[in-house]
Amino acid sequence: MEVNLSGSVVLVTGGVRGVGAGISRVFLDAGATVVACARRPADTPVDSGGRAVDFLPCDVRDPDSVREMIDAIVAKYGRLDTVVNNAGGAPFAMAADASANFHAKIVQLNLLAPLLVSQIANEVMQRQQSGGSIVMISSVSGHRPSPGTAAYGAAKAGVDSLVSSLAIEWAPKVRMNSVIVGMVHTESSHLHYGDADGIDAVARTVPLGRMAAPEDIGHTAAFLASPLASYLSGSSLLVHGGGEKPAFLEASTADVPAVSGHG
């Protein structure tokens, strides 16, 4: 079985760079009409197989901007079947040093903005006979310590909580799910992991031996949006290559460190 989204209309927020561009390309390959939004267009077009995204400028933190964008999508295409809330991120800043305004902006972008986009999209989807699907792009930072990006991690934990609540509130018309993303190799990886040697060294810490490609995240999002996942709602799927090895395994001097019990 293959994911076939021909005839569907998909909005990918932040869908022209990094992980978002990979998500957009996967949905294009699956046959969907893809609308990608960001505050500014990409330096190079996001396309695949001779088809390109329809770009709309939007500040996903601004209610008027979001409503104008979604109204434009419905006016042009007549429907909105899937939203992938991908826009987000955070610069490195230790919590004790960051201002209250900094923390508020991080939470607004990574928690309140996807809630806002979802609310307005839900209004459209509830009126459609086929309903719709909303996929939140979350992060492992919401499920393990996130030093240097504490507010971001807290916001992503909130996203996964939102999914479990909205899956109940908006059922049966709208399915809500999230993708909990681990480390991804993008054009910005050097900002997080250093030079090529640093990126390779970090990749070796992943049990599967590599970081995710943006398309890995896109494939998961496309699956969740597809009829193959028609009974999935309120779920959070881990896409992290097996996770992170426990630190005590490296520190232990035992020949075969115990991995069970209470520590």
Automatic annotation (TrEMBL):
One of its GO terms (molecular function) is oxidoreductase activity, acting on the CH-OH group of donors, NAD or NADP as acceptor. SUPFAM superfamilies: NAD(P)-binding Rossmann-fold domains (SSF51735). Keywords: Oxidoreductase. Pfam families: adh_short_C2 (PF13561). It comes from the Bacteria. Residues 8-183 form the Ketoreductase domain. Belongs to the short-chain dehydrogenases/reductases (SDR) family. This is SDR family oxidoreductase. It comes from Nocardia uniformis.
